[in-house]
Structures are given as structure tokens and as C-alpha cells.
Amino acid sequence: MGNSSLAPTSEINQHIWQVVSQIPPGRVATYGDIARQAGLGRGARRVGAALRGLPGKTRIPWHRVVNAGGAISLPAGSDGRYRQIMRLRAEGIEVSDSGRISLARYRWDPGITEPAAL
DNA sequence: AACATGACTCCAC
DNA sequence: AGTGGAGCCATGT
């Protein structure tokens, strides 16, 4: 067989999406967290690209992924940014109007599969 | 193959 | 908390 060390982009994306779908409601994870969980090392940017490729009607909880600073990474003024903030608040997560979230309170621990306790 | 781009991250001010 | 610059990884031209 030829190159067996690299999987097609579509498969990598699918793997990333699978990890993202493991984030329980009421919790968030950073791009870096997802990358590490997916075995991509420092591929945080790769995670962003995978989420960008999601269809609009997906049921993958992409909104639970924020950057290392605990902030929404989608461009200011974009529909996605507004939608992400609304969906997070709908799950009981506090999000400031500037799109900031407390990682100390809501960051997902891969060992736990339950929603954040209030 | 070189260069630009981006839903990233770290560090210094 | 906000801003700017360098580093990082994969894609698209």
C-alpha cells in the first residue's frame, strides 16, 4: 500500500466532529482541547477548519468550541457568532455580550460526560 | 513550489 | 481586557 500514514481530509474532519459531539451540553472545549483529543497535537487551526466545513443543518454541537482565551472565535458581526452565543446561553452557559466565557466554570473535562452542574 | 489565508495559541505591552 | 506580533498546521491559488 502507498501512503498509509495520512487519512483523507474528509475522514479527519469526521473524526474531529465525533470528538466535538462528545462535549456535553452546558460545557465547552477549546480548539486546542479538541485537537489533542483527536490526536492532532497542535492542530487547533485544523479543528477550526473542520468546523467551518460543517453543513448549516448539522446536529454537531459546534457552538461548544471556543478559543483558548475562553472567547468566541467567529468574526465579530457574523451570523455564526450571534448564533453561537444564543445557543450557549440556551444551555445555561454565561456568555458576556463581548462573547467571553469562563473556562474555569464550563471547560469540559474529557473524563466527564455530564453537563455542568449549577 | 512560493505565497496568502484562517472558527488557533502563546507572549509581551 | 484589548492589541499586536511570531509560530504553527493544513488548504487553496
TrEMBL record:
<keyword id="KW-0227">DNA damage</keyword>
<protein>
    <submittedName>
        <fullName>MGMT family protein</fullName>
    </submittedName>
</protein>
<dbReference type="GO" id="GO:0003824">
    <property type="term" value="F:catalytic activity"/>
</dbReference>
<dbReference type="InterPro" id="IPR036217">
    <property type="entry name" value="MethylDNA_cys_MeTrfase_DNAb"/>
</dbReference>
<feature type="domain" description="Methylated-DNA-[protein]-cysteine S-methyltransferase DNA binding">
    <location>
        <begin position="12"/>
        <end position="93"/>
    </location>
</feature>
<dbReference type="InterPro" id="IPR036388">
    <property type="entry name" value="WH-like_DNA-bd_sf"/>
</dbReference>
<dbReference type="InterPro" id="IPR052520">
    <property type="entry name" value="ATL_DNA_repair"/>
</dbReference>
<dbReference type="InterPro" id="IPR014048">
    <property type="entry name" value="MethylDNA_cys_MeTrfase_DNA-bd"/>
</dbReference>
<dbReference type="Pfam" id="PF01035">
    <property type="entry name" value="DNA_binding_1"/>
</dbReference>
<dbReference type="GO" id="GO:0006281">
    <property type="term" value="P:DNA repair"/>
</dbReference>
